UniProtKB/TrEMBL annotation:
Family stated for the protein in its record: Belongs to the HDDC2 family.
EC number from the UniProt entry: 3.1.3.89
Keyword vocabulary terms for this entry: Hydrolase, Magnesium, Metal-binding
Protein name as annotated: 5'-deoxynucleotidase HDDC2
SMART domains (UniProt xref): HDc
A single Gene Ontology CC term: cytoplasm
Enzyme class: hydrolase
Database matches in SUPFAM superfamilies: HD-domain/PDEase-like (SSF109604)
Gene Ontology MF annotations: 5'-deoxynucleotidase activity; metal ion binding
Species the sequence originates in: Parnassius mnemosyne (clouded apollo)
SUBUNIT field: Homodimer.
Residue intervals of the HD/PDEase domain: 35-153
Ranges in a coiled coil: none
Source species, domain of life: Eukaryota
Length: 201
């Protein structure tokens, strides 16, 4: 009987996680981006980016597996509360309260594994480790990379400039800083080509 109850809770947990595959990221919805990414899509690419850490670009020896774990749980609460942004009219304190409450509910469904996920979530929220800080860099970088992809798809240079302004100067890890520099270079080239094609130069 206890095993049945435990498995029932795990299934409930997995169904909650499954919601993230379908919840669109609020920032893109507000900007009227068609077919925009889901929360799960955002976390997946963050997770994949942790594999790019190597001996050469990881001089401080970040724990790659821990970075991956943090990336996969950092927005997990949004399966219950949704993707809350400053545009939603919810104060930062209230946002954190709702997300913390959601994470506690999620943790209760999965026992020891849930406790681990909750601890990783708090580590990220408090930015209390080098791995949490790296995950924050990944979060911001994935956002501006996604913004650039939408600008290219819609042939609308600088349309999503607000996302770049919001993250400017906030990247800490040297490897991510290099990727940001390359992204800015490509974005500038894209803008120049678009201006040429439209006869504005």
């Amino acid at each position: 009987m206890a095993l049945v109850m435990e498995n029932t809770k795990i299934l409930e947990f997995l169904e909650l996680v499954g919601r993230l595959k379908h919840i669109k990221r609020t920032g893109w919805v507000i900007c009227d981006i068609d077919e925009c990414e889901s929360i799960a899509g955002h976390m997946y690419r963050m997770g994949i980016m942790t594999f790019l850490l190597t001996e050469e670009n990881n001089p401080t020896k970040l724990d790659r597996f821990r970075c991956l774990q943090i990336a996969l749980v950092h927005d997990l609460a949004e399966c219950i509360v949704g993707d809350l942004t400053p545009h939603c009219g919810v104060s930062p304190d209230e946002k954190h309260r709702r997300e913390d409450e959601a994470m506690k509910k999620i943790a209760e469904l999965t026992g020891i594994a849930g406790d681990r996920m909750y601890d990783l979530y708090k580590e990220y929220e408090n930015q209390s480790s080098p791995e949490a800080k790296f995950a924050k860099d990944l979060d911001r970088y994935d956002m501006i990379l996604q913004a650039f992809e939408y600008e290219k798809r819609e042939n609308s240079p600088k349309k999503l400039e607000e996302f770049f302004k919001a993250t400017e100067g906030k990247f800490d890890h040297p490897f991510i800083q290099q990727l940001v520099t390359e992204l800015y270079r490509q974005r500038e080239e894209f803008e120049k080509k678009s201006l040429l094609l439209n006869g504005n130069i």
